[in-house]
Amino acid sequence: MSAVDIGQTHKPRSAPTRRERSGPWRITFDTNPDDCNLHCIMCEDHSPYSSTQADRLKAGRPKRRMDIDTIRRVMGESRDRGLREIIPSTMGEPLLYRHFDEILDLCGEYGVKLNLTTNGTFPKRGAAEWAERIVPVTSDVKVSWNGATKATHENVMLGSSWETVLENVRSFISVRDAHAERGGNRCRVTFQLTFMETNVLELPGIVKLAADLGVDRVKGHHLWVHFNQMRLQSMRRDPEAIARWNTIVDSLYEAAELHRRSSGERVLLENIFRLDENGERDIAPNGVCPFLGQEAWVASDGRFNPCCAPDALRRTLGYFGNVNRKSLYEIWESAEYRDLQADYMQNTLCRGCNMRKPADS
Predict the structure, then answer these.
(1) Nearest CA among 113, 126, 125 for reference residue 186
(2) Whole-angstrom Cα distance, residue 273 to residue 65?
(3) Which long-range contacts (CB under 8 A, 24 or more apart) does 174-183 make?
(4) What angle is formed at CA 356 by the lines to CA 41 and CA 328, rounded to 5 degrees?
(5) What is the DSSP string of 117-183?
(6) In angstroms, what is the C-alpha Rg of the chain?
(7) Is the pLDDT of residue 6 over 70?
């Protein structure tokens, strides 16, 4: 899919072909975005700068928690529709979701892989016990990571303990490797970063740390600036910040070449690329959306969302339906969703989105 030029007009797309009826290859379920045991400074819902939880309490609204029946139904509908992975909530801590074990069981039942993003605390059970449950059905475990030093990591992920999360990663990888040696599934382990001024100089050190620990991949995205207090953290905010970012990108690839995992393999770097001079407005001129027509998001109340942009922003893309009232695949094949795929670059959100990639990546 290629980017759409701003101002270009398009006719509605024709009815989906048989191939196009397969559906999303991955679905993210926003299981429990209001449950978290950390207060990361960049988080739209749990940052000290966020009013989300205070506003919810003032209004008397309960925490957003998905009914497990929603997941059961969508996964049942997805049988033979090309679904390969599901992701539990990437906002909040998914391991706090009370039906998480059933999600793992559903993955086993339907032959679908879990793709997990966790803050690295492995609450309630600890890393090793969680690993025994997670590893057999999981493709990738993305551990949120935001520093190469104790001070930086803990100053970004408030409430985190550097020593604890380091040991948790070691324990998880030990179980993962032992499971693979017995002939079982080998899930990838990833450090998931948010690129910002606070940690940018430590990014090469994070690559070295990943190699030392046996982490397979370092992946990240540029900061979504939810709060004015975070504005000066963006590496896209002005030409000087962009120039510093581009220098660090080169250093990251040098670090991946120099610091190898014990197997001799390089740590895989993903979503790490130089920005051009228009990076303030457009992260990837002529780049494409990696999500539309490929993946789906389901909010805790069942609302279908087309992407992972912050909730208030992605709502500006329109309303497409609710999977508690109609099939996800009816929404997926609807004219409204297909029109968005054709014309998404006419949206301000999409033109400035942090998640678009260069066309050649």
Answers:
(1) 113
(2) 36
(3) 174/128, 175/127, 175/128, 175/131, 175/132, 175/135, 176/131, 176/135, 177/214, 179/131, 179/135, 179/136
(4) 90
(5) EE-S--TTT-HHHHHHHHGGGEEEEEEE---SSHHHHHHHEET--HHHHHHHHHHHHHHHHHHHHTT
(6) 20
(7) no
Which DSSP string corresponds to 103-134? HHHHHHHHT-EEEEEE-S--TTT-HHHHHHHH
| For residues 65-88, average pLDDT | 95
pLDDT exceeds cutoff 60 at 46 = yes
| Number of neighbours of residue 52 by Cβ within 10 angstroms | 19
Structure tokens at 192: 């998931």
Tens of pLDDT, residue by residue over 228-279, are: 999 999 999 999 999 999 999 999 999 999 999 999 999 999 999 999 877 6
Beta bridge partners of 138: 114
- Provide the pLDDT confidence category of residue 349 given band limits of 50, 70 and 90: confident
Reduced to 3 states (helix: H, G, I; strand: E, B; else coil), residue 2 is coil
Report d(CA 283, CA 178) in Å as an integer.
40
The pLDDT, as a whole number, for residue 4 is 26
Pairing of strands 138-144, 113-118: parallel
